[in-house]
Design a protein that fits this description.
With 330 residues, this protein is an alpha/beta fold. The protein contains twelve helices and eight strands. Helix 2 links the parallel strand 1 and strand 2. The radius of gyration is 19 Å and the shape is globular.
Length: 330
């Protein structure tokens, strides 16, 4: 599949498929450098109203910069915005109340035990864990990674895994295709977010998924190719935090076979290409600028030491916001 022909790729397009959309919610910060929890809640409410699933304490949420106590506070706030559903959630919602990054901070505990503690905290609040990469995990041979994931996922209702490219964090890692195949065999692992920013790597995973375990969800993290939903990917995107309502409408148009899907998808992809240009981690500052333009947060300064975008980006983001809003109103 790494060298798939154009015919094979076009033939793989899944018409009228409703993707499961997850939004990696931004953690905004105050001028004093503290997490802006009010701004976070406003975003969570917009994600909920759009009918998408919130993913908190992710890279977009600066989860690696938050303390365990702060991450737990985020979980509590998210649980308030996303209460338990009165009935079983439909499949297009992925069966998750919300998703949260399970982090391992520097410590003396065994890696599996540290992940298990983080997962327990998420599950106590009603969320689904996605295992965030860490330096210790990157250092393990892939066979050991499979064993670790099997142990920490065993007996849990649902667990998500995370392949994250080094362009996002230096300890990111994209696994080999045989390792991905082995992860498909873990029954409690129900999906994986793939953030290589490489279409061919994701196409190869989709093909293997379709052969081996069709119910397994591959969540694209490719903010430079958000049309991967056309090929069978679902999504968990930082780009979706910029405008959850636009992503929800785009998904509805695709599911309905509405040709207006392409115009809206193109605008959102333009936004992604602009916001996620190198250095990629500075997309979080672009997200804050965009959300401030939308009136959803009071300030857009990133935390100390985080990469920033130039002031000249504001005019481009304002123009894109105007164009996206016009397309939504069309």
């Amino acid at each position: 599949m790494n060298h798939a022909s154009c015919t094979e790729i076009v033939g793989a397009i899944r018409q009228r498929r409703r993707p499961h959309g997850m939004v990696a919610v931004l953690m905004p910060f105050t001028a004093a450098g503290a997490p802006d929890l009010d701004g976070l809640v406003k975003q969570l409410q917009r994600v909920s109203a759009a009918g998408l699933t919130a993913a908190v304490n992710m890279d977009t949420g600066y989860g690696q910069r938050l303390s365990p106590a702060q991450r737990d506070q985020v979980l509590a706030l998210t649980a308030q915005v996303f209460p338990p559903p009165p009935t079983t959630t439909g499949d297009h919602q992925g069966g998750h109340r919300f998703v949260a990054g399970a982090f391992v901070d520097d410590g003396d505990g065994a890696l599996g035990d540290e992940y298990a503690r983080a997962m327990d905290a998420i599950e106590r609040h009603g969320g689904t864990s996605i295992l965030f990469p860490c330096p210790e995990l990157r250092a393990l041979p892939e066979t050991s990674v499979i064993d670790l994931f099997a142990r920490v996922a065993d007996g849990r209702r649902a667990v998500l895994l995370f392949e994250l490219g080094e362009m996002f964090v230096p300890y990111g890692r994209i696994y080999s295709l045989p390792t991905f195949a082995a992860l498909l065999d873990l029954p409690s692992v129900v999906g994986l977010k793939h953030s290589s920013l490489n279409r061919q790597a994701e196409w190869a995973r989709l093909a293997l998924r379709d052969q081996r375990r069709p119910d397994f969800r591959v969540y694209t993290g490719n903010d430079l190719a958000i049309d991967m939903i056309m090929y069978g990917s679902d999504y968990l995107l930082g780009l979706a935090a910029f405008h959850p309502e636009a992503f929800a409408e785009r998904d509805r148009r695709w599911a309905a076979g509405d040709a207006r899907f392409y115009a809206l998808n193109d605008l959102l992809q333009y936004l992604g290409a602009f916001a996620f240009r190198p250095p990629v981690p500075a997309y979080r500052h672009a997200a804050a600028m965009f959300l401030r333009l939308r009136g959803l947060i009071d300030g857009d300064a990133p935390p100390t030491g985080a990469p920033t975008r130039p002031e000249t980006d504001r005019a481009v983001l304002a123009d894109l916001l105007e164009r996206i809003e016009a397309e939504l109103a069309a």
